[in-house]
């Protein structure tokens, strides 16, 4: 990793007596990690989506950060906004990703008060525009724009080589998707040389299945000019504004086709599915490859404990977990406790959650540091649509936000959401019916 990461280091000169040093980087990355992720419901009520746990020990942002260092990109600006504390603490000074550098490394870039005005990031491109000085400081030849909410492994160096080979001004990473899903994405139509002829953002009737992944390489001068020109555009966005503007004025825009695993975990269903795929006998996305490691901040915690009466089948069990019951087809985070005679099936249980004795959990996503009482049943009754947000709480799941409490001996139906310290009084006859919700905390759920 150390050898690869030196590839993108350019020139660094320092002069004393008040003369500012000159830094030159071939390519820097700007990682957009400020979104709330509202489609994840109560999971992101008090945490930014890129900081949500994934695969037991990781967080979603670990994947693009690991891709950067594995690709030799050693200068990364992480743009944060919504609920940034957990994300900032996780990233720190970048030690797990070898991004603690004197020249370059990782920098947290929240919105800040300027001399003339102070404003939140209002779009993906607006966020980048507000950090022009950061990019100018490194004076790169190329700027890599990334999202912080996808699960994938990509060698950005190969994409850069494609960009250079085509003499492109902008290169979009693209991936083939089923045509029936293409309307969810920006889609491109290319010629035989992969130059983009047309670009449509979320078209109702897509004419192509080649979808933009939200990953872009810009030649720096092209990006800078476009950001400045469109700086007055409200909610300036790459897909809606910057890319169409550059394409219309004749810039050379190309599509780099990626054919590996890539998952947008922006919905509860896709988040659940991608976690479940990790425990397949031959997983489509392999966390254990030596040549492309996924790095994360690791706490110093004891090993797992599995009691003599417990049963575990097809599961990821995090460090420090204590398993006294049965676990089937589930992802169990670090420090989770599953009590005696309890059964967990098809579920994601995040760090530090405690599940009491004699409790049954079916197809649930339970966030960090929750307490589920004794003798509970989660994921029972017939499935009906959620009464509050039927487009979010779907597919028969139970979703419980972090630091929530579920009291002893309650039964919780499907397509339900719970957030906060609930008590037995919140459950008529000890039941939360399918499609119902109990929200006791938070104003952004």
What does this molecule look like?
With 445 residues, this protein is α/β, with parallel strands linked by helices. It is 17% helix and 29% strand. Strands 17, 19, 21, 22, 24, 25, 27, 28, 30, 31, 32 and 33 form a 12-stranded parallel beta sheet that branches. A 7-stranded mixed beta sheet has the order 7-6-3-8-13-10-14, sandwiched between helices. The chain has a 6-stranded parallel beta sheet with strand order 16-18-20-23-26-29, with no helix packed on it. A hairpin with a 3-residue loop joins strand 4 and strand 5. It is globular, with a radius of gyration of 23 Å.
Output the structural class. Answer: alpha/beta
Strand content: 25-35%
| Mean pLDDT over the full residue set | 91
Q: If you compute it from the alpha carbons, what radius of gyration comes out, rounded to the nearest whole angstrom?
A: 23 Å
Main beta sheet: 12 strands, parallel
Q: Portion of residues in helices? A: 10-25%
């Amino acid at each position: 990793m150390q050898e690869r990461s030196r590839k993108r280091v350019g020139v660094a000169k320092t002069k004393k007596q008040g003369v500012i040093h000159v830094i030159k980087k071939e390519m820097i990355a700007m990682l957009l990690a400020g979104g709330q992720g509202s489609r994840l419901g109560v999971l992101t009520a008090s945490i930014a989506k890129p900081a949500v746990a994934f695969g037991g020990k990781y967080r979603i942002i670990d994947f693009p950060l690991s891709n950067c260092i594995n690709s030799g990109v050693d200068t990364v600006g992480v743009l944060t906004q919504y609920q940034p504390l957990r994300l900032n603490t996780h990233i720190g000074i970048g030690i797990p990703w070898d991004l603690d550098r004197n020249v370059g490394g990782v920098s947290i870039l929240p919105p800040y008060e300027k001399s003339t005005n102070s404003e939140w990031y209002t779009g993906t491109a607006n966020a980048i525009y507000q950090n022009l000085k950061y990019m100018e400081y490194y004076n790169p030849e190329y700027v890599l724009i990334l999202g912080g909410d996808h699960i994938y492994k990509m060698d950005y160096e190969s994409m850069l080589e494609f960009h250079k080979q085509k003499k492109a001004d902008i290169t979009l990473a693209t991936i083939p998707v089923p045509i029936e899903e293409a309307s969810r994405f920006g889609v491109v139509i290319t010629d035989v040389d992969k130059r983009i002829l047309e670009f449509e953002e979320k078209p109702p009737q897509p004419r192509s299945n080649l979808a933009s992944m939200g990953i872009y390489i810009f030649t720096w001068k092209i990006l800078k000019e476009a950001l400045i020109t469109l700086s007055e555009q409200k909610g300036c966005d790459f897909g809606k504004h910057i890319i169409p503007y550059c394409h219309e004025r004749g810039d050379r825009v190309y599509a780099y086709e990626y054919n590996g695993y890539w998952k947008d975990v922006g919905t509860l269903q896709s988040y659940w599915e991608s976690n479940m795929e990790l425990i397949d006998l031959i997983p489509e996305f392999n966390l254990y490859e030596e040549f492309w490691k996924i790095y994360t901040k690791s706490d110093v915690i004891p090993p797992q404990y599995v009691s003599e009466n417990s049963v575990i089948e097809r599961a990821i069990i995090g460090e420090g977990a204590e398993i006294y019951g049965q676990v089937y087809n589930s992802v169990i985070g670090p420090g989770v406790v599953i009590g005696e005679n309890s059964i967990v099936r098809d579920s994601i249980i995040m760090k530090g959650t405690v599940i009491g004795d004699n409790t049954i959990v079916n197809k649930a996503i339970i966030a960090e540091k929750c307490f589920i009482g004794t003798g509970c049943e989660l994921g029972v009754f017939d499935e009906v649509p959620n009464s509050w947000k039927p487009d979010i709480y779907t597919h028969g799941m139970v979703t419980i936000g972090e630091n929530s409490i579920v009291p002893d001996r309650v039964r919780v139906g499907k397509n339900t959401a719970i957030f906060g310290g609930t008590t037995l009084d919140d459950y008529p006859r000890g039941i939360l019916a399918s499609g119902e919700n109990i929200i006791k905390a938070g104003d952004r759920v």
